[in-house]
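User: Fold this, then the next.

Assistant: Folding the first:
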Amino acid sequence: MRSWLSAGLALMLALVLAACSSGPSEADSVAVIDRFHSALNADDIAAIDGMLSKSTRNLRPGIGTARAFLALSARHGRYVHGYLAGFDSNDGRASITWRARYERGPVSELFVLVNEGGQPKIDSYTDNAAY
């Protein structure tokens, strides 16, 4: 009887741990994307850097990766508004399709977020000028 109980508890623990390793929630992802766009409009490199995963920050030395995001404003102008167009979460990652409107027109954005240190972080980003 105890072996069945132990096996049941082990299975429950495994399921709980698997659930914890899922990617960021939709609500958390939208919140990060909103903060990202606010920081982008404010040219706040430090805030952008704080939203990036460690692996993404390591792409360029110092805060070079965050600084590279400022090129978005040069390409598209200031961010005006946007909305969630798609959300998928698996393998500990959340993929978010965002329909954005910048001063120079519509932009389709794809964010990939991961949980790192208990917080959702931007692991990759892609933009396409027209959707």
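Now the next one, as you asked:
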Amino acid sequence: MYTQAYSPEQSAFGKLENGRDVLILYVKEFEGQVRTVNQSGLSGYTYHWFATELKDAYVLQVTWENEVHIAIRFNTQHFGLIDQLLQPKDVILTTTPLSLLMEKAQTNQYNFIEFNDVLTFSNLSFEVPNCEN
């Protein structure tokens, strides 16, 4: 199975209003998928982790009921992000650079980030992929 996977360009950690820890990932390439999922109103998804063929990276693949899918590639420089996902965590995937979101918050003197198009995942966690050949 061939899957085109994209790596996060920016990431951040924070807390949601309800106190839950959140990992925020900016991946610009998923703009179309984010829009499609949001417009369809689907909330049911499945996810799984797999290692790349060379086992030098991990990929998180998320698939919705309408077969829309995304694949986020975590290279070695992203392994710190995977460490954050060893415990279940909420994840926000945005297609807007986090630096722009932070700039807007500072300009408006907000103590929060205002998102536009995002996908959210609850209690996402990293599971070591089964390495069967």
